């Protein structure tokens, strides 16, 4: 698959996140993404962007990317370095859908001229920070 020009990318479903200590909440979101029938491309928060988001991750970018690249239907993981890159990413990766969990409800509606936005129910009672607490 050549990546020289944006239209070379097949249509996809795009999502973003830290995806630290991958758990079934993340997996359910990615399953919902798969159900849209297109390959999944993930803007993965860099370690630097996580600090901007006041988030600490147990795993570094490379480790989190390696895990995601081995999830069914995920064909590209690329760095999420800032909040503003999404519009360019939508064009570059030929995104038909942008999906996020419901904790982001409405936050990306300003992109709805470029892509179909879907918010999926966030899985309650599970989060990376809770797992970190339990596993110490
Ligand atoms: N998620 C979920 N259920 C959970 C935990 C997370 O559905 N129990 C979803 C979130 O809603 C998000 C995705 O999984 O869509 C990744 O979650 P995080 O890694 O917590 O992502 P976040 O730090 O919120 O980064 O530009 C957007 C940001 O990069 C999102």
Topology (elements, then pairings):
Blueprint: E1 12-17, H1 24-34, E2 40-45, H2 47-52, H3 61-68, E3 74-80, H4 86-92, E4 95-101, E5 116-120, H5 128-135
Parallel strand pairs: 1-2, 1-4, 2-3, 4-5
The structure holds [cytidine-5'-phosphate] glycerylphosphoric acid ester.
[cytidine-5'-phosphate] glycerylphosphoric acid ester is lined by residues 16-19, 25-26, 29, 45, 55, 80, 100-101, 103-104, 122-123, 126-127.
Structure in words:
The chain has 136 residues and is α/β, with parallel strands linked by helices. The chain is 29% helix and 23% strand. The mean pLDDT is 93. The structure holds [cytidine-5'-phosphate] glycerylphosphoric acid ester. The site of [cytidine-5'-phosphate] glycerylphosphoric acid ester (C2G) has 18 residues, from strand 1, helix 1 and strand 4.
State the helicity in percent bands: 25-40%
- Which structural class do you get from the secondary structure elements? alpha/beta
Mean pLDDT across every amino acid position: 93
Spatial arrangement of strands, main beta sheet: 3-2-1-4-5
Low-confidence stretches: none
Largest sheet: 5 strands, parallel
Choose one word for the global shape: globular
Question: What share of the residues does DSSP label as strand, in percent?
Answer: 15-25%
SSE succession = EHEHHEHEEH
Number of helices: 5
What is the rounded Rg? Answer: 14 Å
Q: Are any ligands bound, and if so which?
A: [cytidine-5'-phosphate] glycerylphosphoric acid ester
Number of strands: 5
Could you state the oligomeric state of the chains shown? single chain
Q: Calculate the terminal CA-CA distance, rounded to whole Å.
A: 42 Å
């Amino acid at each position: 698959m050549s990546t020289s020009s944006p239209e070379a990318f097949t249509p996809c479903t795009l999502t973003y996140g830290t995806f630290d200590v991958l758990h079934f909440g993340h997996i359910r979101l990615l399953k919902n993404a798969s159900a849209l029938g297109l390959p999944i491309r993930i803007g993965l928060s860099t370690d630097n962007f996580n600090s901007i988001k006041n988030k600490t991750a147990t795993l570094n970018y490379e480790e989190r990317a390696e895990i995601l690249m081995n999830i069914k239907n995920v064909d590209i993981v690329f760095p999420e370095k800032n909040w503003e890159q999404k519009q360019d990413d939508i064009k570059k990766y030929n995104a038909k859908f942008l999906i996020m969990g419901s904790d982001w409800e409405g936050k990306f509606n300003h992109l709805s001229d470029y892509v179909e936005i879907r918010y999926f129910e966030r899985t309650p009672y599970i989060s990376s920070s809770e797992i970190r607490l339990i596993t110490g």
